[in-house]
Design brief:
heterotrimer, A alpha/beta (183), B alpha/beta (259), C alpha/beta (360), B: 259 residues, alpha/beta, Rossmann fold, 10 helices, C: 360 residues, 5-stranded mixed β-sheet, 21% strand, globular
Chain lengths: 183, 259, 360
């Protein structure tokens, strides 16, 4: 199993930390992982993005241009990365602020209204975990007990009291994700 | 035949300190380096710290000071002695660490290292030999060269508009909170040698207090570079260097004593 | 040996490895993209645990000279920087090599020349292995290509540095420094005791005990005849490294028709390109260089006798390729593919270059 993922959105949406929690969870399951923040021209345009690779084998390049999954949280990221999803791959987007929906016909497309739901519930701080939950529902590449350990390792000890809230958000996301186009 | 075979012990009134090696110094006759070396070595001997002292030599005439002091020694790149000494002291806090630098090394190419070591308040002793000229390189202008003074690179005399002002680096360093003792001495008369030695002793002893840099400037002559006899050079130094670089303590026990 | 599994950035791995490998001192100056090294050290406060000294210097010039001073007392002293800062350190590096002072320097390369960019590059190869500073000297230069190697090579660096009394350069780039991967961290190696320091560095300036001569650390020798003898000694040391300390990793090279030659981040990218090539039925291998000095000349010569061509992949205009060509003695086509100025090539474009320039 090798899963190559790009997570992209605005700075402040918790993109990097979502990637880190996923990567750390992979480490806890003794998988090979790589977390690579945006670089080069990718950095321009006000988006933050991170590549996360989780694999059972040694990971080659931390720099890749085609992804199994793209998780995009704003229009700029959708515009940038829709074309980078491998044929037959997965695109997940949050419809908040999206004016031009994805158009590709050769990939699986899901949406998750995490921004709206998190605002309604007053849990905006764990918005990124709602999205992560949606992804894990579709691709359970890391077991939930390891997600727990990943949260423990990623969050500073003073925030460990927030782990249950994070896990609830993940569960919420699993129920929130909905299919737009399934091949 | 060794000296002691000729001089009977009961007649011996003066001998070289054991902290100096037997190597023959390369300094010009009349130069202050030999005397400055000697009194530093005597201080190390009298304090009983030969086995705990690490010296750092500069680039310049005293580059090979390590051949003359019988203590462990490092030769630093030009101007970097205070950085080198910083790490020696921080990693070996029980050792006594001193730098020995000339005016070009300490106050031109190494100004940043000098100021920052002093500003951090490193617990080291810095010895600064100021003779207003680059001796080793062949008599070029130093930051401390006096206005009007002729050197190889100021053949018509130092001109403020062309070359800037003589740099009173010692007064500047005294203003920094990291210096604990700052003094200016000379070694051109027996009385001045005694005062300079007392200052150096205090500067080394201060390392035990852990209160910052002890800085000893020694205004010295360079009769070769100044193109004078040693006697003329000492007189010229008194008449011209001392008014710009007056002798005496500037900061004692962390307090400015002379403005 | 392995103690715990962690997820960390390459730069953080360098810092943690310094603490764990019994490093006595770190002197540095912040510069992107490697500031996490000192930031991690300052946050960890190793002076309270292992007794390691950490100091932020006023410049890279000062920090490399602090390395000189501290390391010349026989202690394990390190620094890190990125390309422009490493340029500023060149004076110190040649003095360290000339005075035979063991120490560790990490360069997380970024795109140049000049202030350039803060993005990853590999354009300091010449500077690293062809001098950089003045005089005939070599730094033992080792190039990690993963976070785990960033960690492990700090330990290896200390062994080499003290075995040969030579500075060791860990040559990496912003990509390895900034990416997070899993890393097995080791049990702490205690810092050397006073007795161990004196045994391992009998030449060190720690204060002359009665009964031994004074130790002098200098790179000055005004007598040319003696300077030549000293230079010959340095060259013998470098030849011994070439004999004993070469490291590389050969992947799929034994049945390969074509080979990528690369180090660091480029090697990781080329590994993916190799995977893509193999999926297309092309017999492509990868020779990943781990030491850049000593350079794996013999292995390149051996492979040059059996493959049809090599593609050197570097994030530069083509620097390492000169040594690859020399080692291969122009027996086979050898071409360069690289992006520079902070651009990282994709595995696809690297494979395309192999197909267009070498396989044809």
């Amino acid at each position: 199993m090798t899963e190559e993922i790009i997570i992209a959105g605005f700075g402040g949406q918790g993109v990097l930390s979502m990637g880190k929690i996923l990567a750390y969870s992979g480490v806890m399951e003794d998988k090979e992982v790589c977390w690579m923040p945006s670089y080069g021209p990718e950095q321009r345009g006000g988006t933050a993005n991170v590549t996360v690779i989780v694999s059972d084998e040694r990971i080659c390049s931390p720099i890749i241009s085609k992804y199994d999954t793209a998780i995009v949280l704003n229009q700029q990221s959708l515009d940038k990365f829709e074309k980078s999803v491998k044929p037959g791959g997965l695109l997940i987007y949050d419809p908040n602020g999206i004016t031009h929906a994805p158009t590709r016909k050769d990939i699986n497309i899901y949406k998750i209204a995490a921004t709206q739901k998190a605002q309604e519930m007053g849990i905006s701080k764990v918005f990124n975990m709602v999205v992560l939950g949606g992804f894990l529902k579709l691709k359970p590449i890391v077991g939930s007990e390891f997600i727990h350990k990943g949260l423990e390792k990623s969050l500073p000890a003073r925030h460990h009291n927030l782990i249950p809230q994070n896990e609830e958000a993940i569960e919420l996301g699993k129920g929130l994700i909905e299919a737009v186009q399934v091949l | 035949m060794a000296n002691l075979d000729i001089v009977k012990p009961e007649n011996l009134v003066y001998t070289k300190t054991k902290v100096l090696t037997d190597a023959t110094m390369h300094y010009c006759p009349g130069c202050g380096h030999g005397t400055a070396h000697r009194i530093i070595a005597e201080v190390i001997d009298e304090l009983g710290i030969q086995d705990k002292t690490i010296g750092v030599s500069p680039v310049g005439c005293s580059v090979m000071a390590y051949n003359y002091f019988d203590v462990d020694f490092q030769e630093a790149a030009h101007g970097r002695a205070p950085a080198v000494a910083t790490a020696i002291k921080r990693l070996n806090p029980d050792c006594y660490v001193f730098t020995y630098q000339g005016d070009g090394d300490l106050a031109a190419i190494g100004t940043a290292e000098t100021i920052h070591a002093c500003n951090r308040g490193e617990n080291i002793t810095m010895v600064f030999i100021n003779n207003g000229i680059y001796g080793m390189t062949g008599g070029q202008m130093a930051p401390t060269t006096l206005l009007g003074m002729k050197t190889a690179t100021t053949p018509y005399g130092r001109d403020q508009k062309l070359n800037g002002w003589p740099f009173q680096v010692t007064e500047l360093l005294a203003e920094l909170p990291g210096t604990y003792y700052v003094t200016r001495q000379s070694v051109h008369t027996p009385a001045n040698v005694r005062k300079a030695k007392a200052a150096l002793k205090k500067a080394f002893e201060n390392q035990k207090l852990e209160k910052g840099v002890s800085f000893v400037e020694i205004v010295s002559s360079c009769n070769s570079g100044w193109k004078m006899t040693p006697v003329q050079a000492n007189k010229w130094m008194e008449e011209n260097m001392f008014p710009k670089y007056p002798l005496g303590d500037i900061k004692v026990d962390g307090e400015i004593v002379k403005k | 040996m392995a103690k715990e599994l962690k997820l960390m950035k390459g730069n953080e791995a360098i810092a943690h490895a310094m603490i764990a490998s019994g490093t006595d001192g770190y002197f540095g100056y912040p510069i992107t993209p490697q500031s996490e090294v000192m930031e991690t050290l300052m946050a960890e406060k190793p002076w309270e645990t292992t007794g390691m000294v950490v100091l932020q210097a006023e410049s890279e010039l000062a920090s490399i000279n602090m390395v000189y001073g501290g390391a010349a007392t026989g202690k394990k002293v390190a620094t890190s920087s990125s390309s422009p800062g490493i340029s500023l350190m060149q004076e110190g590096l040649t003095y360290l090599a000339g005075a035979e002072i063991p120490c560790v320097i990490m360069n997380a390369m970024r795109g140049g020349p000049g202030l350039g960019t803060i993005q990853p590059a590999q354009s300091d190869y010449f500077q690293s292995v062809k001098g950089g500073g003045h005089g005939d000297y070599q730094l033992y230069t080792i190039a990690p290509s993963s976070v785990q190697e960033m960690y492990d090579f700090v330990f290896d660096a200390w062994d080499i540095a003290f075995k040969y009394r030579n500075p060791v350069l860990i040559l990496t780039d912003g990509a390895i420094g900034q990416c997070m991967e899993k890393c097995y961290v080791r049990e702490f190696v205690p810092r050397w005791t006073e007795e161990e320091r004196r045994k391992n560095a009998p030449w060190g300036t720690w204060g002359k005990p009665a009964g031994r001569g004074h130790n002098i650390i200098t790179s000055l020798e005004l007598d040319s005849a003696r300077q030549e003898v000293f230079n010959e000694k340095l060259q013998r040391k470098y030849r011994e490294m070439e004999e004993k300390e070469v490291r590389f990793e050969a992947l799929n090279c034994e049945d390969a028709d074509y080979i990528f030659v690369a180090y660091g981040t480029s090697a990781r990218i080329a590994m993916k390109s190799m995977e893509l090539a193999r999926a297309k039925g092309l017999k492509v291998g990868l020779l990943r260089l781990i030491t850049l000095f000593p350079f794996p000349k013999k292995e390149i010569a051996r492979l040059a006798a059996k493959v049809k061509g090599m593609l050197c992949v570097e994030m530069s205009a083509g620097q390492m390729i000169e040594d690859v060509k020399l080692a291969a003695e122009c027996k086979i086509p050898i071409e360069h593919y690289g992006r520079f100025g902070g651009i990282i090539p994709t595995p696809e474009e690297v494979l395309e270059a192999m197909e267009n320039k070498i396989i044809k």
